User: Fold Xylulose kinase from Cephus cinctus.
Amino acid sequence: MGAASNATYLGLDLSTQQLKAVVVDDELKVLHETSVQFDNDLPEFRTYGGVIQRKAEPHVAVSPTLMWVKALDMILDKLRVCGVDFSKVAAISGSAQQHGTVYWGKGSRHQLQNLDPNKFLHEQLAMSFSVAHSPVWMDSSTSEQCRRLEDGVGGPLKLAEITGSRAYERFSGAQIAKIAQKKPEAYAITERISLISSFAASLFLGDFAPIDWSDGSGMNLLNIRTKDWHQKALEACAPDLRDRLGTPTSSYSNLGPLSSYFVERFGFDEKCRVIAFTGDNSGSLVGMRLKEGDVACSLGTSDTLFLWLNEPKTVVEGHVLCNPIDDEAYMGLLCFKNGSLTRERIRDTAAQGSWQIFEELLDSTPRGNFGNLALYYDAQEIIPFLIGDHRFNKANDEISRYSSKEVEVRALIEGQFIAKRAHAEDFGFIIGPHTRIFATGGASTNKAILQVLADVFNSPVYVSEVANSAMMGGAYQAKHGLLRDKYSFDEITKSLPEPTLACQPYDDADSLQYKW
Ligand SMILES: O=C(CO)[C@@H](O)[C@H](O)CF
Assistant:
């Protein structure tokens, strides 16, 4: 990699519940890391888990766009207080929750291009959005728009073949269609529609940033083979949509110089470059340096499984996205909406709100949980399309409650992982003797939960030293996009330590209850 320079790289992850940032040195080692929690640090926006959902419309989920802008103001000030020398930052990139959409109003591009370094971003962009509350991935209110989109291109399988997925309620195409139908005046004055990832890149660029191919694959609008919008899908969603989306780009594109706003306000070098931002799961694949044959399991607000694919495929459930590291490759993704918030609910009801008690309860029950199995869906689940708690006893009778807290806790965790394995194998994931599971996300720091993951998949589970792979993926992608002409991704990341083995599947086959 040549002489180690004193260059640093800034990576961000604009996730559902928080904005995270990390500064790494030229060897990609963490120098500084901080976060802004939306609910606690920005209480004026009155979110729960970073999202606003009302009882009257339980399938609607939105987040205040300006909250994300203000979080960026805050996190850069926090980094400055941490002692970050912004003048050393050579490039910036990041990840963001997928599928959500940001609606820039007329005149907002001019505002972005002329930001006053003496003012906060949120002061100057307060009136820049034609839709103040962005629909986010937890929304499931667009089934009507999904059907129309599938009809417009020739059916669900045709849409899956072209865009990598059949129509999904949370995907951007259906969400944009709903805005165009329900808020036509807002849509009419919308100058640009960003994903949350390209919205974040736009703030740093001081101009509209293009949507990247990998996150763009989560819109039901992009042809994942030609990497261009699919005209029939665009027309099935909203009028004149192509111009509002701009031209999509590779997920490691070097978009241009950092906006002068950040140079003058924070002391960044004017030569600092902005590299395309991407979706959080794609960013996690970058941050985990996932290799073909490995399976990643991200345990966050949503739980996801993903893997490297060399070729696209047509799937009825789950998604195929363009690969964020190799423009010719792809990635497979399965998303389960009921992740950490559901685990927290059972932690609160069964373990008095304590993860330590939760782990003790989980460790106190045998694998297989005496034949009890359950599925817990606080919100409308994506796969399967189900809601509510569904508990079963060893006679396979559905029951309303378990008599013991220990059984409830293990039923939750085993049910979550057994569902994941079942859908993964339906998707075509091969779980075999050489499979390695790479765990990331908040719950990947909980050893008892990882042991169940290893047991259910009958595979070893590895973890990286930094649990937030989407954020680290932003930092790695910043260097990758800046030096791509000289070095491959593997060369750029070869100095990083290999993930560590967290646990092996329980090898006492006699007592192992997961008979497949
Ligand atoms: O919807 C999802 C993926 O398809 C989620 O993993 C979101 O990206 C979480 F932010």
In short: The radius of gyration is 22 Å. The mean pLDDT is 96. Residues 15-16, 97-99, 137, 170, 218, 279-281, 302, 304, 333, 335 surround 5-deoxy-5-fluoro-D-xylulose (CB under 6 Å). The longest strand covers residues 30-37.
